[in-house]
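Task 17 of the worksheet. Students: predict the tertiary structure of the chain below and write it out as structure tokens. Keep your answer in the requested format; marks are given for formatting as well as content.
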Amino acid sequence: MALNLDLVGKEWEGGGRRWTSADAILYALGVGAGAEDPLTELPFTTENSHDVAQQVLPTFAVMIGGTGGSMPPLGDFHLAQVLHAEQSITLHGALPPEGSTVTRSRVAAFYDKGPNAIAVLESTVMDADSGKVLAESSTGTFIRGEGGFGGERGSAAPWERPEREPDHVVTYRTRPDQALLYRLSGDRNPLHSDPWLAGKAGFDRPILHGLCTFGFTGRALLHTACGSDPELFGTMSARFASPVFPGQELAVALWDDGETWRFQTTVAGRVVLDRGTFSRRTG
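Model answer:
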């Protein structure tokens, strides 16, 4: 068995990341901010516009956690076997335009999905100087061919697409070079840039990072559910349902359920980000 099952429950602290104002802006551009109208999201895409204070897109939280410090590999499987399965983030306030973090991480579980497996990594991201918690995240990683080890299958929280029409639909066109731009923020997985590895994984060409689609969707939630105020952005979670290719148009359907929102992102009617839930910060 290639999975390192002994990791379950163990914690590591370290890693983290130092970022600058320019890094936050590059991330915003990587998830489409300002692409359709360069004047509409200046707080996130510039640092020196008149009477505009720089702000940071909340989904940048997925980038500032680093790699989990000294955590050993989940196993010795090939990179082509790995796909991002699910992601959630919880913000404890607006992220600063620059800073540094340390991260406390643990492998919460390995789930046995028959022929395949899912590894769940939970992380707490803290300011390196003050120790203040900036964000928490949970990442599910789908690993092809590594199931069958007799573990639990795991369960998902109840979620149904509402029967009514969405309260809002936000559309964003991704760029043909979107993956090349997004990878500059730190996710250099060659699945999103190397045709050879994409072919090994069963794709005709490199696919868009799941977290890039997550970031586009997070922008729709920020502007629609939070009035563009990062201080109000709370918890966002979703499951990656199918791949997106750079250049395709994303349609984010949003349902306002009062205290929470549900969302689903599609490409030409095909679901790519599913089981989405979002809640605003109240504290």
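Marker's comment: The mean pLDDT is 93. The two ends are 45 Å apart (CA to CA).
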